[in-house]
Amino acid sequence: MNGPQSALRRRSGIGLTSSRARQRLAEQLQRRGIRSQEVLEQIRRAPRHLFIDEALERYAYQDNALPIGAGQTISQPYVVALMTQALLMDEDGRMRRPGKVLEVGSGSGYQTAILAPLVRRLFAIERIRSLLESARPLLRELGCENVRLRHGDGAQGWPGQAPFDGILVAAAAAAVPETLLNQLAPGGRLVMPVGVPSRQELLRIERSDDGEVRETLAPVAFVPLLPGQE
């Protein structure tokens, strides 16, 4: 099926891409330890199949990373949910609603779509222009009106909008870039994968009056945080 009917069918979600498939995925993530009902609700709502190539949409609601072109991947839903929860949930289970959040490495926009409804303003950077230009109209169509997208070097952050109450980085580096740490507001959190390709761990840093509190959350596997832009 091609043409307008095919596009409508894809956006509506039928069979493997239906709301029922998203519900099953949310239930699976809850069993794996995702506690935030707000995050799980966004997993149920976000049409992940629209953020990947149509040829791969049968795999959209499996808990796996998938290629999105340009040597990049869309993170597995569990990792997306875990990073979002780590950024926003306190130990008592309460969810923060930060005023300004920076997302580095927005890719095709799926993590952006999960995070945007849970924060007041989201500033997202992607170094690969083709991915950014594909994500922009889709996020607009999904009603993510509080998102500003920028083509640029994510390791440099967004100095003109700093400081940020939260920073989420969807690419791995050997160490957290000082440029990003310097853009984190007091009381803010930064979540990103850190390590070498064969061994990466998801790290959460919270800035307090007494310094930084660092916590290792889980082993992960991400594409590298590269300088520059394409």
Detailed description of the structure:
It is a single chain. With 230 residues, the chain is of the alpha/beta class. It has seven helices and nine strands; from the N terminus they run αααββαβαβαββαβββ. The strands form two sheets. The protein has a seven-stranded mixed sheet with strand order 5-4-3-6-7-8-9, with helices on one face. Strands 1-2 form a two-stranded antiparallel sheet. Strand 3, helix 5 (110-115) and strand 4 form a beta-alpha-beta unit.
Write the layout of secondary structure elements.
Layout: H1 4-12, H2 19-31, H3 37-45, E1 66-69, E2 72-74, H4 77-88, E3 100-104, H5 110-115, E4 121-126, H6 129-141, E5 147-151, E6 164-169, H7 178-181, E7 184-196, E8 199-208, E9 211-220
Parallel strand pairs: 3-4, 3-6, 4-5, 6-7
Antiparallel strand pairs: 1-2, 7-8, 8-9
Q: TL;DR?
A:
The chain is an alpha/beta fold. It is built from seven helices and nine strands.
List keywords for this structure.
single chain; about 230 residues; alpha/beta; Rossmann fold; 7 helices
What string, H for helix and E for strand, traces the elements in order?
Answer: HHHEEHEHEHEEHEEE
**What is the level-2 CATH architecture name of the domain at 65-220?**
3-Layer(aba) Sandwich
Percentage of residues in helical conformation: 25-40%
Query: How many H/I helices?
Result: 7
Secondary structure category: alpha/beta
Give the terminus-to-terminus CA distance: 34 Å
Strands, total number: 9
Principal-axis shape equals globular
CATH superfamily of the domain at 65-220: Vaccinia Virus protein VP39
Strand neighbour order, sheet with most strands: 5-4-3-6-7-8-9
Largest sheet properties:
7 strands, mixed
Computed over alpha carbons, the radius of gyration is: 17 Å
| Mean pLDDT over all positions | 92
Strand content: 25-35%
CATH topology of the domain at 65-220: the name is: Rossmann fold
Low-confidence regions: 1-9
CATH class of the domain at 65-220 equals: Alpha Beta
